[in-house]
From TrEMBL:
UniProt-recorded name of the protein: Topoisomerase II
Domain of life, source organism: Bacteria
Taxonomic lineage of the native organism: Bacteria, Pseudomonadati, Pseudomonadota, Gammaproteobacteria, Candidatus Competibacteraceae
InterPro entries in the record: DUF2835 (IPR021363)
Length: 75
């Protein structure tokens, strides 16, 4: 059974640089339902712009709690 979690991110370009430089490897966010979610920063690479990463995201993960998919669903 897959579960879906939505959360908003507003990470500056400087913050994303820390992920690229290896200073941080995990992203932690608060989901819209109040849960704390943590996932590898590499999942954000395709969403990085010159301003960083912003928007409303939806992640899907399996029963084993492994991340399956991450999509930006709104800016």
């Amino acid at each position: 059974m897959m579960e879906t979690v939505r959360f908003r991110l507003n990470l500056s370009a400087e913050k994303m640089l820390a992920y690229y430089q290896g200073a941080a490897q995990q992203v932690v966010a608060r989901a819209s339902d109040g849960r704390r979610v943590q996932f590898p920063a590499q999942w954000l690479r395709r969403f990085v712009t010159a301003e960083g990463v912003t928007g409303l995201f939806e992640m899907r993960f399996g029963a084993d709690r492994k991340l399956i998919d991450l999509q930006r669903i709104a800016d």
